[in-house]
Each structure stands twice: as structure tokens, then as C-alpha cells.
Amino acid sequence: MQILSIKGLNKTYGSHVALKDFDLEVEKGKVFGLLGPNGAGKTTLIRIVNQIIDRDSGEITINGEPLRMNHVRNIGYLPEERGLYKGMRVDEQLLYFAQIKGLKSAEAKAKIHTWLERLGLLSWKAKKVEELSKGMAQKVQFIATVIHEPKLLILDEPFSGFDPVNAEIIKNEILELKRQGTTIMLSTHRMESVELLCDHIAMINRSRKILDGPVKAIKKAAKTSRFTVSLRPAEGVVLPIWEDYVAEEDRVTFSISLEGKLPNERLIELMNYGEVLHFEETIPSIEEIFIQKITESHAQ
Amino acid sequence: MPNKIFLVVKREYFARVKKRSFIVATILTPLIFPSILGIFLWIGMSDTVGDSARFIEVVDENREFFLESNDLFVFSYGSLSVAEAKEMVQNGSRYGFLHIPKIDLSSPQGITFYAGETPGMSVISGLESSLRSKIEELKLLNSGVDRELLSKLKTSVSIRSIRLGQTGNEAVSNSVVNYAIGFLSGILIYTFIFVYGNQIMQGVIEEKSSRIVEILVSSLKPFQLMMGKIIGIGAVGLTQFLIWIALISVVSTIVMGYFGMKMPQQELLEQTGSVDMAWMESSSELPEMIQMIQGIDFVPLVFSFLIYFVGGYLLYGAFFAAIGAAVDSPSDAQQFMFPVTIPLLIGYMGLFIFVLDDPNSRVSYWLSVIPFTSPVAMMGRVSFGVPISELILSISLLVLGFLFTTWSAGKIYKIGILVHGTKVNYRTLWRWIKEN
């Protein structure tokens, strides 16, 4: 079941094309990663889904219903550039954010209490935002995004500006929300977080989608049938010329392709040259796939 | 949806009203006004004490000018020489002395006033008018007019002005009172628009530069956010004005009471309550004053004041919001202030130069009908009485003007709040309006 479905989306700013014939399907309960270099159209896409800017053409549905203003109740959005009212108290601020999302005051207050406690901010409840540290303010922003328990959580570069400790806390909260059934769509250029968090990714470059699919499938498809090998050569053996060859004190490391054979057959061949210490299929990282795809699309 | 506007209004209102600076300004400003009033009254009163003691020695070589003493001057005729009189002034027993040499009544020359200090305009002109009427009297007597006839000639004239209403009702009017009402309400509206319009702009810039706005517009429409802010800040302004009016009345009453004076409304109350009829009859001016104030049709006046006050604020408020959205910092806003400042200034200047001078002239008509100047200028006409058809036209155009500015400002606002670090000029603004 798709929580978000986009078909044939177009958006231009004057003469600049921001999104061109863009399709996207986001499955319920998954973490969806939106990748792409700066200026690719990620933020435009996110803003259109959040109804902050209007689309030129295209269809967007939430749970099968055409996107409309009421849907903001089910969406939580953490923009890349985010702030708070400096002179306002933490609890009053969160109450305001919850209310404009459509929560009743009493319901919101209970949730605010729970969340502040959960992120260790309860003693700061009555403080003004300007008295908070940057990390604390970021946690408050995160609470403001999730306070109304959205079905779809959209995070634009969620880890930018977070210190490693807070980034870890937020990452765990995201995974916890996923466990509870929230669908999460995040845009990022931090590839390591993509591999750890995302079930599904889409890559955008120059206003078009260039890749879309489950992380595992994408990685599988990117496999080059190459293996990384490390062995301790037997004495007196003449080694063939291998790629990526590195000789260390008692071992050599290199990579080979299968040359149409099964991995075990290649392994048996390698044993003739000495003691095999390491034999592993080379799987490119998302970052490598990303760079490769971007380069390919630029070449076209 | 209107519920969301209300939430924004509530936040904007309480975030400001709870601020210490708001409370301080709201309480201190009305205290400053009566204090200034009190200081002036105190100075004025001590001054009148000095006035009552202005003894003036007259050295009249003609022995004809017996000037009558009045509130300002007490004249004494001691048949002194010039030197003796000078000495009296120097030792302080006289405020000054008036030397009237032998003069020809047809062209009196050489009259001199000596005083220990430079006398003010009021002293000189008071003396001049006393002398003038004395000379005129002497001339008439010399030409054979008898003294009895002369006293009968003195007449006091004041014109009663009555405005004929369309229904045939007559109301005693007074252009000074009308002038004052038009003047005050025009200035109030002008000030209100500027002060609170600027707050709207600052508020929008704050939300934009702190990057809070993107979170907000993902929950509510930019238009709701803009209207909520405009209404909320307007409500703050109204609150402040009401508190000021209440405090100023109370404190001024206390200050005036201390100096033994009465506020106009108190006087009116006492008089209409016929507390002291005999006293009223003795003074012919006061019932006239009551008639005058009764002659002012307060209901349409208050009604139109509120319409132009709120309408003008809303019309310009949208402009201020759009400017705030288009820029990154208050210093960048200067370049866009022009279209706001100029029409407001035209309305303001027009009020003084044309409307209050001649409320029914062609220029006054246009100033009071065009929505950009009407909030300030129309009040100058309303106080003098304006045909209902023109009032309806002006208000309808004001409403249309408000819809137009809000509509176009909404478009600028919607795009502007998300644009950072780009130099925005008038052409960009026009494109934003057009593209939406």
C-alpha cells in the first residue's frame, strides 16, 4: 500500500526547470531516502508534498486521496532550514505547533510532556528558546515535527547541524517511529545514514529521477561480480598480474572477476597460489552507486 | 480554517502583550502625557500670578489718556516725571512705565514703553489695543459724538454657525471643534498605521530570518499566517490605545483636578445635569458650547472613525507584510517603503492643506475617496459633515482597496517568505504577483 504516490509532477521557476515528469511511490511503514546533489530538486519536491508551493502539473495522492489541505494533519515536516520563536517558552511553542496541526489543547499538552521527558528536556519546559543550547533547540524542533503523530514524516536533511550524539538520538527516534508504523521520507546527502536507515531510495539529479528502488535491490543490481581477495603466497610461486594489487609484509591483497565461473571454482584456483585469508564479494556502497549514477547521467 | 487564523492571532497577540516592553510602554506613555500637561499648567499658573502684578506707571504729558485697568495691567497715574518713573521701574516697584509725549491724535507718535525686562508680544499688543481704542474714543468725542452714544456703540459680536442637514435638522456647528476632531482622528489613524504596520513588517522578517516560517506554512496557508499576524498586531494596537485612553482620562482628571480645572466631559455632565442653572445663565458662552458639542453627530463620527481606522490599517498592513516577506533584514526594507510612505504622506499633508481648510473642495473629495489616502483624509471631512453617498463610495473603495492589496500582498508573501539571500527588486515582486 502506498502512502504517497506522485505521477508526472512538473515544476518550473521562470525558465528554470525544478522537476520534470517526476514519478514516485512511497510505501507505508518504510523509510524512504531521497538522494541527490544540491539543486537537484529534492527540496522543491518536499515543499510541493507539504503544499508550501504549488505544482505546475501532476498528480499527488496521500493514501489514495488527492492531496488537499486537510492532509497536513497526517504529515510532519522538518525543513532543512529550521527555527523557533526565540522569545517564546518551549511548552507554549510546542503547543502552538501542535494546535496549528489540528490537535486539541489538552491532548497536545499530554504529548508535549511525554516527548520532553523522552528527550530529557522536561526541566526546560518553561524556559525561553533563546536560553536553550543549539542541541536542545534541535530536539525541540524534532518534537514540533512529530508531536501530532503524523503518518508520514518528511525530514529534509535531518542530520545537518546535529552533533554526533544528538544525531544518534534522532536516528534512534526515527527508527522507533518506523517501528510504530510511521512512514519516513528523508532527503540527505549523508550516504552512511542512508544505508543504515533506508529501506528504499530514489536518486534525483537535474530535476529528474535517475534511480529508484529498495536499497538491497539497488546494491544487488550494482554488483560487478568482483571479489576482494587476500592471500599469503606460497614460497616460490609466481603470481599472475592482479588488479588493485597491494603487497604487504606477509600477504597480498587484490581483486578479481569471476570470469564466467562460480565463486567456489575461482576460490579453488586461488588456493594454488597460497593460503587464502580473505575472499569476499565486492558490493559497491550507496555512495559509490550515487557517484557512478550521477556521472552517467551527466554523460548522457 | 478560520480557526487556524484565530490560533495565529492568539499567538501574535499574547506574544506581544506579555512582553515587558509592551507593559512598560503602555503604562508609561499615558503618564508622560498628563505630566507634560501638569508641567505646562504649573508654569502657566505661576505665570498668571506674575501677570496680575503688572503695575504700569503712565506718564502722560497730554493729561487725556486715562487707560482702564484690566486683567493684564494696572495703570497708575502719579503725575511723575520721566526720570522718577524710570527710577520706580529700576527699583522694581513698577513693572514698567508708559511715556506718552504731547501727541497729535491724527498721527500719534513717540509713545514709548520702558520695562525692566523685554516685554512679550502679549504685553505690547495689549498696550497697543488699549491705546488704540482710547485714541479712537477721543477722536469721536472731539468730532462731537456724545459720550452716551459712544458707550452704546460698543457691541460684541459672535457668529453662530448652523449646519443644515439633508433631513432639515439644524445643528449648531463650530468649525474649530470640527477642525480639532478631523485633525486628531486623522493623525491617530496615520500614526496607528505606521507604528503597527512596522511591527507587522518586523514580525514577518523575524519569522523569515529565524527560518520558522517554513514549519508554519507546512501547517497553515501563507495567507492565514499573514492575516493572523495583521489582525493579531492590530488587536495589540487597539488594546494599547484603549488602555491609553482610559489611563490618560483618569490621570488627566487627577492633574486638572489638582489645578482646580475640569475636563470638558465633566463640565458637560455638570451643566447638562443643570446643577447650577443660575451660574449658567450668567455666562452666555457655556450653553452655546453644550449646543455645539450636542450639534456634533457622534454616532456617524465614531462609526466612520472605526471603519477608517481598521480599514486603513488592514489596507496598509498587507503592504507591510509583503515588504517584510520580500527582504532578509529591516535595512533592506527601506527600498520598498516608498509606495507605502508616499500615499500615506499625501493623505496626511492633504488633510492639513486641503481637507481641513475646505472639506468640500474637489481635491478634498478625491483625497477622501481614493482608498490609499481616504483613511487619513476622510476623517477631516466627516467631522464637518459629508454626504452619505460619498461616504458609502469612499468606504466601498476602501474595502475594494483592502481586498486588492491583501490579494497582491498575499502573492508576494507566499513566495517571499521562502526566498533567502536573493536581491529582490520591484521587477521581481511584479513577477511573483504575475506568476502565481
What features would you describe in this structure?
The complex is a heterodimer of chains A (300) and B (436). By secondary structure, chain A is of the alpha/beta class. Chain A folds into 2 domains: 2-213, P-loop containing nucleotide triphosphate hydrolases (Rossmann fold, 3-Layer(aba) Sandwich); 224-281. Chain A is built from 9 helices and 14 strands. In chain A, helix 2 (90-101) crosses helix 3. The two termini of chain A are 34 Å apart. In chain B, a hairpin with a 5-residue loop joins strand 5 and strand 6 (170-173). The longest helix of chain B is centred in the middle third of the chain and has 37 residues, at 222-258. The radius of gyration of chain B is 31 Å and the shape is elongated. In chain B, the strands form 2 sheets. Chain B has a 4-stranded mixed beta sheet with strand order 2-1-3-4, with helices on one face. Chain B is built from 17 helices and 6 strands.
Order of adjacent strands in the largest pleated sheet of chain B: 2-1-3-4
Which stretches of chain A of 5+ consecutive residues score pLDDT under 50? none
CATH topology of the largest domain in chain A: Rossmann fold
The CATH superfamily label of the largest domain in chain A reads P-loop containing nucleotide triphosphate hydrolases
Assess the beta-strand content of chain A as a share of residues. 25-35%
Q: Walk across the major sheet of chain A and give the strand order.
A: 6-7-8-3-9-10
- Tally of strands of chain B: 6
* Whole-number total of structural domains of chain B: 2
Q: Tell me the series of helices and strands of chain A, N- to C-terminal.
A: EEEHEEEHHHEHEHEEHEEEHEH
- The value of Rg of chain B in angstroms is 31 Å
Average per-residue pLDDT of chain B, rounded, comes to 81
**Largest interface (CB < 8 Å):** A-B, 29 and 23 residues
Low-confidence stretches of chain B: 273-284
- Which CATH C-level class of the largest domain in chain A is it? Alpha Beta
